[in-house]
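Q: I'm writing up a methods section and want to include an example of the input and output format. Could you take the sequence below and give the corresponding predicted structure tokens, formatted cleanly so I can copy it straight into the document?
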Amino acid sequence: MGKVVNLNRYRKLKAKAEAAKRADTNRRLHGRTKTERQRDEHKKRLLDAKLDGARLTVEPQPHLVAVAEPRDGDDEPS
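A: Here is the clean output for your methods example:
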């Protein structure tokens, strides 16, 4: 016969490992100083401004606009 495994113990160990991983992620995300958060926000604003400056404006072309055609039976409003 094989070895008997306690599934409850395995489930609890797995839940503890997941909770520890989630706690570590939260510490990394939220455990930053005010200066670090401000620096990251400033970098994000600079990158967004650079991206917006490189954006091409596309004019809408009227011949590509779809117009809904009435279907059979849709001629009269209900």
